[in-house]
Amino acid sequence: MAMSSQVCALFEEAPERSAGVRASSLYSSLIDDLSQLNFADADDRRAFPPTLHSMLARHGLFGLTIPADRGGLALSLQKAIELISATASFDVSAASTLVIHNFLALPCIEAAPHLPNQEQVIRGATRGDLCAFALTEPGAGSAPRHIEASAFMHEDKVRICGRKIWIGLADWARWIVCFARASGHDAKGRLVGVLVDRQAPGLKVTHEHRTLGLRGIIQNTLEFQDVEVPRAYVLSRDQDGWGAAASSMNRGRIGVAAMGLGALERAIQVAASYANHRRLGKLRMIENSYIEQLFGQMVLRREVVKAMLTASCRLVSGQGSPNVHLASATKVLSSEWCGLVADQCVQLLGGRGYDEGTPLAKIYRDARILRIFEGPTETLLSHLGRCLLSRATRDEIADLFVSLGAASVHADAVEELRGLDETDGAVLIYAGWLTTLGLAQAVMTAGTFTASDCATAAADLVSTELAAMRSRAPTRLSVERRTRASQTLANFLQDAACSIRSPVLTDDYLKLVQYV
């Protein structure tokens, strides 16, 4: 290497080492502070520990990847998700706050340089002015095509009308990034993102959702009743708000995957500690061969998820955005396996696992939402399957496999699906799983995304999962079989209406008025 190159390398490595030291120190101090908080009581009260917000702000965690000159920590995506994962190991609600603020809402604000007082807004956000992300609606979920909230465009103002549900941080937020359908004489009818002050006249926080898990973070319904904001607060000036939303949600999937990793790791820790002390006859529980194998599989799943997250952080676009297909696959695998491991750990502890006095019951409840947040598993699998099969997008998937050195894995998947109905929902889900597990297999065999000595065993686990899935490959269903399945459900509903006289089956209950 030439002397000039060596000098350049030294200057490039020094800041990187310095950043690594800072991140390591931050990680240690964060763990120390989180360990002092009582998240179990917070879960019962459905409110965070009073000092949590100030503690997260003191550590700078409300500006994880924001540049230092704007008040942020300027961390790499890898270091940011490590902090999120660590936080999730204590409380998934707290980690969810960091994901919503840092990965969903703030990037939309940061990408709008025309925004009045953008610097002040971002600096305030890094110091603790929470930002919420309002996309979900009663009749649409997060599907952009069905969003009905409207943003009527005047010359200098925007008037927003509509309702949003399940909005995390809504009642605590200083700013809300709201997505609505543009209307007006110069509107293109596209989705737009608008930054709204929480105190804006006409914006009302109404129903508080009492969710199965994530009890520490507040989630509300938002009512926009002729809320007017300056037109300069439209974040997407070209009226392509969905592009901004999709980019944030893609990064959000990485955050959700990191949350799943943290919760999965904590579940294994708790269960292993119990099994190490609990005796079954003459042996400790952890010495039972079946339980040994079960823990071994849990640890291997953790290794795969960790490697997938590392790969997602490294394979980014020129704009720093994670690869959308790899991010989706990582989120699917992390959330599904986190739920599986949490369930297995509860089972291992028996009645103690079901007792709210142990952390596992809370982890079990919190983990359930991860399979829904930022795209339900089935939606993401269908998308991945469609991308694998569609001529318009198959090259994107192919290029991703090539970049991981696994072109043959992609070719085998395409060949296997040849001849199946590309419009069949079961085929799309199956193709999505082929893509997800195929990418996991590619990441584990690449050898560049994990330093673990059990990487080979983890790759074998993925291969086993693929083989098991292929044994259930979809086949063409005859019209008769599909009709029979439909008739079976119809017969059950008719029978239940007569034999199960529970209020749960009354029309009023099933209407779920506040959602439908």
Automatic annotation (TrEMBL):
The keyword Chaperone does not apply. Residues 240-387 form the Acyl-CoA dehydrogenase/oxidase C-terminal domain. It holds the Pfam family Acyl-CoA_dh_1. Keywords: FAD, Flavoprotein, Oxidoreductase. Residues 39-111 form the Acyl-CoA dehydrogenase/oxidase N-terminal domain. Residues 132-227 form the Acyl-CoA oxidase/dehydrogenase middle domain. InterPro entries: Acyl-CoA_Oxase/DH_mid-dom (IPR006091), Acyl-CoA_Oxase/DH_mid-dom_sf (IPR046373), AcylCo_DH-like_C (IPR036250), AcylCo_DH/oxidase_C (IPR009075), AcylCoA_DH/ox_N (IPR013786), AcylCoA_DH/ox_N_sf (IPR037069), AcylCoA_DH/oxidase_NM_dom_sf (IPR009100). The keyword Cell membrane does not apply. SUPFAM superfamilies: Acyl-CoA dehydrogenase C-terminal domain-like (SSF47203), Acyl-CoA dehydrogenase NM domain-like (SSF56645). Its cofactor is FAD. GO terms for molecular function: acyl-CoA dehydrogenase activity; flavin adenine dinucleotide binding. Belongs to the acyl-CoA dehydrogenase family. This is Acyl-CoA dehydrogenase.
